[in-house]
Design goal:
The structure holds 2 protein chains of 2 kinds.
Chain A (H helix, E strand, L loop, with lengths): L1 H25 L4 H21 L1 H10 L1 H22 L4 H25 L8 H32 L1 H25 L21 H10 L7 H24 L1
Helix pairs in contact in A: 1-5, 1-6, 1-7, 1-8, 2-5, 3-4, 4-5, 4-7, 4-9, 6-7, 7-8, 7-9
Chain B lengths: L3 H50 L11 E6 L2 E5 L13 E7 L2 E8 L5 E8 H49 L16 H56 L7 H25 L9 E4 H18 L3 E6 L4 E4 L1 H18 L5 E9 L2 E8 L34 H11 L3 E6 L6 E8 L1
Parallel strand pairs in B: 7-9
Antiparallel strand pairs in B: 1-2, 1-5, 3-4, 4-5, 6-8, 9-10, 10-12, 11-12
Helix pairs in contact in B: 1-2, 3-4, 4-7, 5-6, 6-7
The chains are: A mainly alpha, B alpha+beta.
């Protein structure tokens, strides 16, 4: 169905678009180099994952793909911290962080397009759905870019805050996959906000892409999220002080 | 924002894309939801229609009319269907019965069996409308949102131009400092640079002009004073030595030097009161008191010419202005009136206020000036009659030019007219309170 294709593309592209827009605001003056450093590893990693996807899925008792994605999400977070701490590595680390997220999104989309269940979708559905999803994601990214540029001029801390939220979101995604694979103890469920703000609603969708909104988080997820958010925020503040 | 064009193009395209796509998705979801409801309704109707067949005497309203004919005999009809055949033509057609217009479909699968189904046209249109309306609503509702966002984006994009314009309009006449803006877009950058360069060149030119006029006048004043003293001494010496001056050369020389001295004084005053240079120190002052002081200053000359002078109107008139400039204004007007009015003439000053304006009228019963000269007398170095001025009074042709500059400085107005006396000039000055 058309709506499924749109949602699939949005789910995969929106977080990537938001991260790219945020990082472009940061590295505006060197955006060409940033684009180059982002494009090369992205294509390389996506090709590797796509070509070896079946083999990867079969590893580690069938948890290979989930654990690889978790690793890439965590790498994305670590690279963001590194880019905040080391000014000389900032651009390269940021580009690699975005490339990690791109390889996850890209391989998921390729998987969706070539899945046998795709037979239910007509080619028109797929083309229109992907155009709608990509268009919405790109539009939000453009608006997000200009909003962040404004915020950065008025309040530098707001940029650090949003970057930290985006970074912590990657850890949240990794933790969800690790929980699913039983590599992370779930712990008690803390609250249930599905009725208040559903993850499937427009706002829930956006918040999930931006800051990893979870309607039913577990204790371990929340602790990990807060820890990583604080760590990245501290790194960003450290970067500002060094300037 | 580096470029207004890039900002506007990218943000507006992003906004249009986002809102249109979201509206399209909403239309899709709502239409799908309505279509789902319609299909469910069809299922309900079909189920009810079939159940009737097994419930004898049931006359439940279905919305559909159904007839089954077997070997030309009506074997089944729903509650809304008539006793007669709803249609004789195979396929789709439209007919009237039971007070409504119906869309009818007749199918004859075998020679012996005919099934006729009919649906009211109004019901079909209503259902179609529901689906179409559901798909149009999000598009229509998104329009005000688009308009609001376009307004915000365009306002944001044009804000540097607005700030630039506000800074220019808030500048005082003598403020030639550069305009400073944060985040100057590429399109405005050159305009701002050129404007600031123009201000800088203008400031330099004014400064040079001011310094030149001031320096020339100052440099001339000292030798002229020496010349006046020497001329006075020489005149005294001629008198003591009994040298006669039948052609009045010495007197003409003295008059020429005095005129030049007056001219230099006036040039310095003109330079000082020029709105482009003058740094006004506005304060609350009493114009009536200031007029009395000026009359007192000029009184010796007025008495010498046996003229009558009177100050009428308000005894106190408070306004905001520069004391030095206003005193010079009144002094020039009274001085002109005294100089160009004949011996024994009359001069009148009148002060009044009207709403938010102070009015000073100075008039005399001198020869006056022709109405066609009214505008020209404010020109620098212009004297009525030129060098052949008949009054024989020493003047520079700068007095009224200085008066006009002072009036402009105070954002007032000045006008000339015929005096209320039988002859003479009437000068009316209006100043804001």
């Amino acid at each position: 169905m058309l709506i499924n294709t749109v949602l699939m593309f949005l789910r995969e592209l929106l977080p990537l678009c938001l991260l790219l827009a945020t990082l472009l605001v940061w590295h505006r003056s060197v955006w060409r180099s940033f684009a180059l450093y982002f494009a090369l590893p992205s294509v390389l990693m996506l090709s590797l994952i796509s070509l070896r996807m079946v083999w990867i899925s079969e590893q580690l008792d069938g948890l290979g793909l989930e654990l690889l994605y978790s690793f890439l999400y965590l790498s994305c977070f670590v690279l963001l911290c590194l880019s905040a701490l080391k000014a000389q590595w900032a651009m390269l680390s940021s580009a690699l962080a975005a490339a990690c997220l791109f390889s996850i999104s890209g391989s998921n989309l390729l998987l969706y397009i070539w899945l046998p269940t795709q037979a239910e979708n007509t080619p028109a559905d797929l083309v229109l759905g992907s155009a709608l999803g990509a268009g919405i994601g790109a539009s939000i990214a453009v608006l997000w870019y200009y909003l962040l540029s404004e915020l950065k001029q008025w309040r530098i801390q707001s940029f650090a805050l949003l970057l930290s939220l985006t970074g912590a979101r990657q850890v949240m995604m990794a933790s969800a996959l690790l929980l699913q694979s039983d590599w992370l103890p779930a712990g008690p469920q803390l609250w249930q906000t599905e009725q208040l703000l559903s993850e499937q609603s427009e706002l829930g969708f956006f918040l999930q892409a931006l800051m990893g909104y979870e309607a039913t988080p577990s204790l371990s997820q929340l602790l990990l999220y807060l820890l990583c958010f604080g760590l990245l925020f501290w790194c960003c503040s450290f970067m500002e002080k060094k300037r | 924002m580096r470029s207004l064009r890039r900002y506007l193009v990218t943000v507006l395209i992003a906004l249009f894309t986002l809102i249109s796509f979201v509206a399209a998705l909403q239309s899709y979801k709502q239409s799908a939801s309505r279509a789902e409801a319609l299909f469910d309704q069809d299922l309900q109707i079909l189920a009810s229609s079939l159940s009737q067949q097994y419930q004898a005497g049931s006359q439940q309203e279905l919305g559909l009319a159904l007839q089954v004919w077997q070997k030309g005999k009506l074997v089944y009809r729903s509650a809304l269907a008539p006793q007669t055949s709803m249609s004789d033509a195979e396929g789709f057609s439209e007919h009237n019965f039971a007070g409504k217009r119906w869309r009818v479909f007749r199918q004859t699968p075998t020679d012996l069996l005919t099934v006729i189904v009919a649906q009211p046209l109004t019901q079909r249109q209503q259902l179609a409308d529901e689906v179409i309306t559901a798909s149009i609503y999000p598009v229509v509702l998104s329009l005000p949102l688009q308009a609001l966002l376009i307004w915000l984006v365009v306002s944001k994009a044009l804000s540097p131009i607005k700030r630039f314009s506000a800074q220019l309009s808030s500048k005082k006449a003598n403020d030639l400092s550069p305009v400073e803006l944060d985040q100057v877009p590429a399109e405005l950058d050159q305009m701002l640079k050129t404007t600031n360069q123009l201000f800088a060149r203008l400031a330099d030119a004014f400064e040079r002009e001011k310094r030149f006029a001031s320096d020339v006048a100052h440099e001339l004043r000292t030798p002229l004073s020496v010349l006046q003293v020497n001329l006075h001494n020489a005149s005294q010496q001629w008198q003591r030595s009994g040298i006669s001056d039948p052609e009045g050369s010495m007197l003409a020389l003295q008059a020429g030097v005095e005129r030049m001295s007056t001219l230099i004084e006036q040039i310095m005053l003109l330079n000082r009161t020029n709105p482009e240079h003058f740094q006004a120190r506005t304060e609350q002052l009493d114009l009536a008191g200031l007029c009395r002081q000026v009359v007192a200053d000029w009184y010796p000359q007025i008495e010498k010419k046996q003229q009558q002078i009177e100050l009428l109107g308000l005894e106190h008139l408070s306004l905001k202005g520069d004391a030095f400039a206003l005193r010079l204004l009144v002094s020039n007007l009274v001085g002109n009136a005294s100089k160009y009015t004949q011996v024994g003439g009359s001069i009148q000053l009148e002060l009044s206020n009207e709403q938010d304006k102070a009015m000073l009228v100075v008039q005399d019963n001198g020869p006056g000036i022709a109405p066609e000269e009214y505008n020209r007398v404010f020109d620098r170095f212009y004297r009525v009659g030129g060098d052949r001025h008949q009054s024989g009074t020493i003047g520079s042709g700068l007095g009224l030019a200085i008066v006009r500059d002072i009036v402009v400085l105070h954002q007032g107005s000045i006008s000339l007219g015929a005096s209320d006396f039988s002859s003479g000039l009437k000068v009316t000055v209006e100043l804001p309170l």
